[in-house]
Amino acid sequence: MQVSYLDLPRQFTDPELLRLVGGVLARGQFVLGPEVAAFEAEFAGLCQTRFAVGVNSATDALFLALKSLGIGPGDEVITVANSFIATAGAVAAAGATPKFVDVGPDYNMNPELLEGVITARTRAILPVHLTGNPADMGAIIRVARKYSLVVVEDAAQAVGATLNGQPVGSFGEVGCFSLHPLKNLNVAGDGGVLTTNSPEITQRLVHLRNHGLKNRDEIDFFGYNSRLDTIQAAVASYNLRSLDEVTAKRVHNAGLYDRLLAGPGDEVVIPPRNPNAQQVFHTYVIQVERRQELIAYLSERQIETKIHYPIPIHLQAPCRAMGWQAGCLPETEKQASRILTLPIHQYLTEAQIRYVAATINEFYERQTH
Ligand SMILES: *Cc1c(COP(=O)(O)O)cnc(C)c1O
What we know:
The chain contains 13 helices and 13 strands. By secondary structure, it is α/β, with parallel strands linked by helices. It has a seven-stranded mixed beta sheet, with helices on both faces. The protein binds pyridoxal-5'-phosphate (PLP). The site of pyridoxal-5'-phosphate has 14 residues, from α4 and α5. Pyridoxal-5'-phosphate (PLP) binds next to α4 and α5.
């Protein structure tokens, strides 16, 4: 048996999708066509926000969110170091300085540590809903209000996730989502989308993504070229129809793994569950001992795994140059040496999941049910 991490080609074969893309090709309105506005309306509905703005990636969504909030040189943005590099990269691109706070056992920002890293320069908090599990937004927003900080959510991995019934992307001033092929709601290339309840922020974002243009010829400020392609908007709307199904399958797969892998001892730690959240399992991240050996063992048996992410951002070269070093974020660093991501995609069969779990248990010679 073979278990691949993803099965993308399988997702993009429906004649109905090809017909929708063909329609965009036939009409020729490739930039900011009507499909973009249609997708934005649908996405705002999903997130229960007043507005959504399509852009060309979540990286740009994060960057433009910070820009729209007036964050730039001299400002500090508090985020986590166990995310994809783009989270901190967007802060740096905006000219601001990323400040890292440690995470909790749920892989998310530890709100109890936030007040300790706030300085006179802090302007924003940028939590990440890592793995598709919502960060503790109640506690994060409380700290933000107390210190008059804005909150930008990196929801790139968490489309459709909710906390106490409220969708991610609707808690902070702005939410940022990715439509990258690897994400739960994906397109055939790059794409991203922002959510907000503020008409002012929406207008700034709409101008920022299109050179600052407020009409055909005039700008009030310089902007960027970061639009969601019309073709990708059509693909996003098409895939949005099956998002609930995709999420349900991922949640089902996670439940199966949980049961098959739960056992005594520390060799395998299953992902944390939050009873107040709908987790969407963009990734299924376990913690293991003897990780390198296990990866090789699985790989020899045709099981593909990944590590998200092996090097915490604060230990990357540009952050080391700012003075960050090993020991600064003990929980983040401990997890980075133990985490392993198992395949969880919607096309996996139960037999494949049983095979993965049995192979892991066999490696540790564990007895589980
Ligand atoms: C994927 C990802 C991004 C970047 O998304 P792109 O659309 O590829 O730019 C940012 N943050 C997190 C947490 C991600 O997983």
